[in-house]
Amino acid sequence: MATATAANRIEGTDGKDVLVGTSGNDLIIGGASADKLTGGAGADTFRFTDISDSYRTATKSFADLITDFDPGQDTVDIADLGFKGLGNGLDGTLAVRYNAETDRTYLKSFEADADGNRFEIGFEGNLLGALNESNVLFERLILGTDGNDRLTGTDANETFVGGLGRDVLTGNGGANVFRYDDLLDSYRNYSQADGNHGDRIKDFNVSADRIDVSALGFTGLGSGHDNTLDIVLNESGTRTYVKSRDLDADGNRFEIALHGDFIGQLSANNFVFASTSSTQSEAGNAATAQAAVVAPEIEVVGLAHHEAIA
């Protein structure tokens, strides 16, 4: 999965721009119209946030041209466009095609939107075999380690995967997904002297962010039993806990903390749950989590710091 660190943000207008990066790591956003983009030295990211940023119709091209794409360090960021990956240009994929006459490579969709526009980017040179999912970003991932990480996002839409350890996650804007792939990514065990291994999300936005627990088998909000998650407020009203009340064989149960009071605000829309039958799904979505009061949390200081990929 492609990742990149951008030091300089360079943005175009709605017209035909010629944007040139610096010798550092640049984030280049051409915007609408057919732009000419040159990253320069450094590991550069070329971001496209709308089909209208770079496209063609059946008869005319409005595609951007990237003049110096380095597949070894540069990145094309199309995470906001909803494409699933590389392929034949159909079914939500993008195709890579080379035109020997013009010596240009194209990353393109063969599926037009309602206006007859289909996404396309041009690159100088032959990049067949060089454009792949290590340098074409379909999803912005911010990954943690097995330790206690502090992961901070950007103002873009990102997916956080903290992994093991007691992590502190800050979305920092955008519509973010906080994904949990294993129970041990964030849990509590009351049989341990220091049994709080739960992650904390510092700036959860109920209007845009989601928590993905589909891999853990949870199916909705409820009592915290039978594959549901309960919503609980601490006694000081400063943290809201999303938790299971069912233990695994080792006495662990899933739990994460959100900074702030979200009682009455969190709904199934803020989660990605595992699929169920239609009846079970409707019941899970209709469930209303009840507020509860728990004892104050004991904090562990001296967390290791892991820098996020911006």
Topology:
Layout: E1 8-11, E2 18-20, E3 26-29, E4 36-38, E5 45-47, E6 55-56, E7 61-62, E8 64-66, E9 75-77, E10 85-86, E11 93-99, E12 104-108, E13 118-124, E14 136-137, E15 141-143, E16 150-152, E17 159-161, E18 168-170, E19 177-179, E20 187-188, E21 196-197, E22 199-201, E23 210-212, E24 220-221, E25 228-234, E26 239-243, E27 253-259, E28 271-272, H1 278-286, E29 293-294
Parallel strand pairs: 1-3, 2-4, 3-5, 4-8, 5-9, 8-13, 9-14, 10-11, 15-17, 16-18, 17-19, 18-22, 19-23, 22-27, 23-28, 24-25, 25-29
Antiparallel strand pairs: 6-7, 6-13, 11-12, 12-13, 20-21, 20-27, 25-26, 26-27
Question: What labels describe this entry?
Answer:
310 residues; single chain; disordered C terminus; ten-stranded mixed β-sheet
Give a summary of the structure in a few sentences.
The chain is mainly beta and 310 residues long. 3% of the residues lie in helices and 32% in strands. Residues 1-6 and 278-310 have low confidence and may be disordered.
Global mean pLDDT? 88
Order of helices and strands: EEEEEEEEEEEEEEEEEEEEEEEEEEEEHE
Portion of residues in helices? under 10%
**Regions with little confidence, pLDDT below 50 for 5+ residues:** 1-6, 278-310
The figure for the number of domains is 2
Total count of strands? 29
Oligomer class: single chain
What does this structure look like?
By secondary structure, this protein is mostly beta strands. The chain folds into two domains: 8-137, Alkaline Protease, subunit P, domain 1; 141-294, no CATH class. Helix content is 3%, strand content 32%. It has one helix at 278-286; strands spanning 8-11, 18-20, 26-29, 36-38, 45-47, 55-56, 61-62, 64-66, 75-77, 85-86, 93-99, 104-108, 118-124, 136-137, 141-143, 150-152, 159-161, 168-170, 177-179, 187-188, 196-197, 199-201, 210-212, 220-221, 228-234, 239-243, 253-259, 271-272, 293-294. Strands 16, 18, 20, 21, 22, 24, 25, 26, 27 and 29 form a ten-stranded mixed sheet that branches. Strands 2, 4, 6, 7, 8, 10, 11, 12 and 13 form a nine-stranded mixed sheet that branches. Strand 6 (55-56) and strand 7 (61-62) form a beta hairpin.
